[in-house]
Structures are given as C-alpha cells and as structure tokens.
Amino acid sequence: MCTVSWVQTPEGYHLLCNRDERRSRAVALPPRIQARGWVRFIAPVDPDSGGTWIAVNEFGVSACVLNGANLTRRLPLTSNGSNKIPRSRGLLLRDLVWANSTDECTLWMNQLDLTPFAPFTVVFLEPGKPATIAEWNGEHATIVRSGDSYIPLTSSSFDPEGVRKTRLNELAGRVSASGRIDHAVLHAFHSSHGEQPDASSPCMHRADAETVSFTCVIVTRDEIRFLYSPAAPCKASKCEEEVLRRAA
Q1: Is the Cβ–Cβ distance between 189 and 201 less than 8 Å?
Q2: Are strands 120-125 and 62-67 parallel, antiparallel or unpaired?
Q3: Cis peptide leading into 233, omega within 30 of 0?
Q4: What is the C-alpha separation between 14 and 161, in angstroms, rounded?
Q5: What are the distances in angstroms from CA 104 to CA 32, 62, 92, 231?
Q6: Cβ distance 134 to 106 under 8 Å?
Q7: Alpha carbon of 171 to those of 2, 81, 109, 193, 232: distances in Å?
Q8: What is the spatial distance between Cα 136 and Cα 115, in angstroms, rounded to a whole number?
Q9: Is the N or the C terminus of the chain less surrounded, counting Cβ atoms within 10 Å?
C-alpha cells in the first residue's frame, strides 16, 4: 500500500512516496548508501525480506515499487497461482538498482522471470526523461515509456479503485487551486487527509494499518538527496538524509 508521485525539474526531478503498511509489520531500517557491483545507491531496507520499495543510484536513476496493477487496473492477487509463497517484490529493485538509465531498467526487467512475484507496478525515473512505468499483473508485463500522466500511483488492499479515485481527486484539486504541479503541491498532497484521515486519504490511517514512512528523492545536476521520515507525513518526525554525488 503506497502513494507515489513525482515532478520533473530543469536539473532532475523530485520523487515522493508514502509507504502504507500494517501496524504489526517490522519497522524498516533507515536509508543508507550501499553498493551493487560497482554502483552506489541509497535505499531503506525491509527487514522482513531484505529488499526495498524505493531506491536511487549514483546515476540519478530511481525506482519505486507498489503492490498491484496501476495500468491495467487488475485487482492485486494474493498469490502467483501456485502453492509457493510469492517472492518479495522488494527484491526486484535490488536486481535493477545498478542500471544507468530507465531504458536499461526495462531491458533487464524484461529478462527476469517475473512469475514468482505477485502483481506490482514500478516507476523508473532519470533526469531529462519522462517516467517509465512497468507493470506485472500476474500474467504479463506492460511497459509505458511516457508515464507522467499516471501520477499519482497508488496501491491499497482495502479498496484499490476507490482509494485511487479519492487520491487522484485530491491531487487534481490541489493542482487546480495552485495552477501548477510542483514539489510544494506534491508535499502538501502526501501530507493530506482529504475530508478526514482514513483508508482513502493520501496520508493513510486505519485501525490495522497506516502510512509508516515518507520519502522524498531529489535529483539535481550534481547530487542526489534522499530524505526519509520514519513516520506518517502528518506527524512531526525529523527527516534522515543521505547524499550521493552524481556519477559522470
């Protein structure tokens, strides 16, 4: 369960993510600089799987994965049609995090066996290009290379279509009031409760689950900043920050 949005800038982009999880789930380990092969990247770590839901590497290439299908609107499945436990979707990003472009991300993803994964949607970003969105719906993969019109991406085990509609309307209202879409509008959107804090609001609160963290990845010409708050955006929580210099 997540809400993901982004905006392009002259030098790069901003990528924002609310992570929604069960209250009983283990607390994620904070973001840190890691290496995959010879490529450095920043990502938090899910202690349950060792994977991550959001990562950015030194080339300025980001990836963020959500449960379920955002392109075909197929409802999320709980299994992959077998008796085996599906492979954690958070491990997918570790297989792709050393790519130096979004084109390379999709090339490598097309070569992976996706059948062990439950349905997912992943957005890939790099400076100077529209977002690429890839989806695995449990049967086949779909890739959209100009995916900026799909923001916000959402996922919910409660009511996937109803939640998406509510959050889309919330963002549309804020963009209309502002007259533009920029990082300030997106920050306000991710902190929003709409009419009330509930299962449909971008900053989500339910009896059994809530928004457990907020991430903002800022990529500029010279550096990458990874800002991470281990709490819902509506709560006062000091952001942790990791910084990488952009690779040539």
Answers
A1: no
A2: antiparallel
A3: no
A4: 26
A5: 24, 12, 14, 33
A6: yes
A7: 15, 35, 30, 11, 18
A8: 9
A9: C
- SS3 of residue 59 by DSSP: coil
Residue pointed to by tokens 């790069």: 12
- Tokens at 28, concatenated: 């994620």
Question: Following DSSP, what letter does each residue of 1-46 receive, concatenated?
Answer: -EEEEEEE-SS-EEEEEEEEEETTSPPPEEEEEEEETTEEEEEEE-
Q: Which two tokens stand for residue 149?
A: 């019109």
Q: What is the pLDDT of residues 98-152, one digit of tens each?
A: 999 999 999 999 999 999 998 999 999 999 999 999 999 988 999 999 999 999 9
pTM here is: 0.92
Q: Could you read off the pLDDT of 205-237 as tens digits, one per residue?
A: 999 999 999 999 999 999 999 999 999 999 867
Helix axes 183-190 and 160-178, enclosed angle (nearest 10): 140
